[in-house]
Fold these 2 entries.
Entry 1:
Amino acid sequence: MQLSDVDLTDPDLFQRGVPYDQFALLRREAPVFWHEESDGPGFWAITRYQDLKRISKQPQLFSSERMGTLRQESSEEDLAIIRNIILNMDPPKHRQYRALVNKAFTPRMVNSLRPRIQQMVKRIINGVIEKGECDFVEDVAAKLPLEVICEMMGVPEEDRRRVYEIGNSLVGFDDPDLQETGQPRDHSGAQDAFAEMFLYGTKLREKAISHPADDLATGLVNAEIDGHKLADLDFNFFFLVLLVAGNETTRTVTSNGMIALLEHPDQHADVQADLSLLNSTVEEILRFAPAVHTFRRQATADVEIRDQQIRENQKLMLWYTSANRDEEVFDAPDTFHIRREPNDHLAFGVGEHFCLGANLARLELREIFRGILTRFHGMEITAKPRRLRSTFINGVKEMQVAFEPGPSLD
Ligand code: HEM
């Protein structure tokens, strides 16, 4: 393989599997690599850990706001909309907005969810354990993050299925299975989903005002800094980002983690026998098989990185999947090692936009794997998992598994 063979824009390639060989080549030979694009002006592919970290910590120089955080180009009209989403803001606006939502999203609030999350895990596993088989993605991995976000935001039971479908459509913008016409370049499903969810946010906001509860929605409606509250539409945008950022990601890590454990039966048995390894196992899963491949930044001035001249307004893509396998930082980076220490992976990003939901995601992942490890025995994958067609999310759409049937618990 040579640098001329590298193509990080091909969703078919990512659907077959993460191109770790291309990332290793880039880290070795061209860590700041000019990558041509058939559907855009080209970008700098950033594949090394320290570079990714440095860039993420300089939001003034590497903007999330100027052109958004996705690789695909957006029209000015679309940019005006997506700049209202926290992911696509720069300081000082980002700091103010983040402080507001942080206020509602406190560690106390997250921790208070633990007993509810444990109940949800029990119910999710009860739903399949007697059958001895299921689609791990839909029946186990997808359920917990969806339930948690819906509960935090006050989405009633009967609307959750639609919220689930819409979230899939938003993230699966490159996967014809998840768009209405089934055509590879048809993104209309994602656009309609965006509009529908946005409108739905208004309903939730009105409910949070008329029926205040001890939940995130009410916290968001009331949070105030220097006398300023979240504007009406900001609430909707925040709901939308939670749905996308918090749902597909946690589901993906759960599915990828299960695959990693099943592919490493000795370590699977070790953590099953000793749950004190649970936290380091979850961290290793996050490093080894993260949910988000990449986010974008736009240079706001000419700047040099590793002797490469980046020009103002050029695009940079930060490849978390590659940084997590950087041999300058991790020993034997391609080895799955549940006792890895230290393990400062970048699965949640770093710097200005470090994942707001990292504490919540960790809590969900620990509790779902605690449930899985204690209650499922003899699990095996019975058909090749179907991966998401996406260069953005490292997702799995379907994974049929069989296991020893067990009892439903009270
Ligand atoms: C394992 C699961 C998750 C992974 C791998 C993940 C990953 C990430 C990454 C890489 C970023 C950085 C984006 C950037 O630098 O541009 C991010 C930001 C964010 N995440 Fe997560 N995330 C996860 C779960 C969650 C959850 C559960 C929530 C909320 C319920 C959440 C909400 C957010 C938000 C709001 C941001 C934007 C923060 C900002 O712009 O300041 N994420 N996430």
Note: Residues 3-402 form a domain with the Cytochrome p450 fold (CATH 1.10.630.10).
Entry 2:
Amino acid sequence: MIEKKPLTGLTSKELSALATVLGAPGEYGYVIAKWIYRKRAKSLSEINDLPKRILKELEQEGYEISNAIGIDSFPGTDGSTRYLLTNPNGQYYESVFMDNGKRKTLCVSSQSGCRMGCRFCMTGSIGFMGNLDTSSIVDQVLVVPESKSINRLVIMGMGEPFDNYDAIEKALEIFTANWGLALGKANITLSTVGIANKLEPFLSKQPCNLAISLHSPFPEERAMLMPVENSSPIERVIDILKRYPLKKPVRLSFEYVALSGINTSEEHAKAIAALLKGLKYHLNIIPWNEHPAAQFNKPEKEELYRFTSWLNQNGVLWTIRHSKGNETGAACGQMAGKWQSTS
Ligand code: SF4
């Protein structure tokens, strides 16, 4: 049996090389890319401006547009829907659509599970089932039914994008290229724990907005919450960010999961301001989303109010982001793929 191969995940250049191998002009690659990413063709038979012979040859070689399989969807009452997907490698991963009126956001995964082991995160607790290839990353934007309407894309689902750098780099090219999904780079945000040796190549290209997970300004406490601090200290990350500042239209932000009684003191507010001094950034505070795999508490309104007042006093610009998808296990840090849906 011929192995099925997806065309999603290939760049226009790679599709041109494929056309050439089949004895067709390289420009056909550009035409195929437009059908896949712009016209969102579901099957090769929809392509009506290329010779039938080429399409037949692609089919005979085992190519198909996509090989993602949608397994289930979990609509919430807050305008979000969690989608559970799988691919022929047997990897499970999740995407979440969030409808905020004019703002329609899709959150995509970069890995199946995650090996970063952040203590507050459900995904971190289920372990690592492997990197997603570019096809499975890009497919999420093509397969989710509402994805035609999205105007924001966030790479904040399962996994650490910088731990799957090559696949993410190619996916970003497809998300932003004219022959691809043509999303503006200021409308895409990649969230990372901050793996220093991947930060430099990312910042030299600046393909989209960058969100760094901070969660504590104190190295020891951050290492307790995020083991990555031991191999990639936040001070080194900040140093790189200062050397390669993000330039408009892309922006830098820091993510801060607020854990009651842990990281919301006046000392934390002062230390955040001191640590990030000299950078142009915004701090996104995410009240922790409860799940069974971690023993933290969500801060009450009063605690958040006190914390944000101290941030104000120290000149930190912040926004509290209440995650959507709490009731369906789709909120930040709650994604658990197959495991959560079957529990
Ligand atoms: S917070 Fe992100 S990087 Fe950390 S374990 Fe969860 S998915 Fe991985």
Note: The pocket of iron/sulfur cluster is lined by residues 114, 116-118, 121, 123-124, 158-160, 193, 333 (CB under 6 Å).
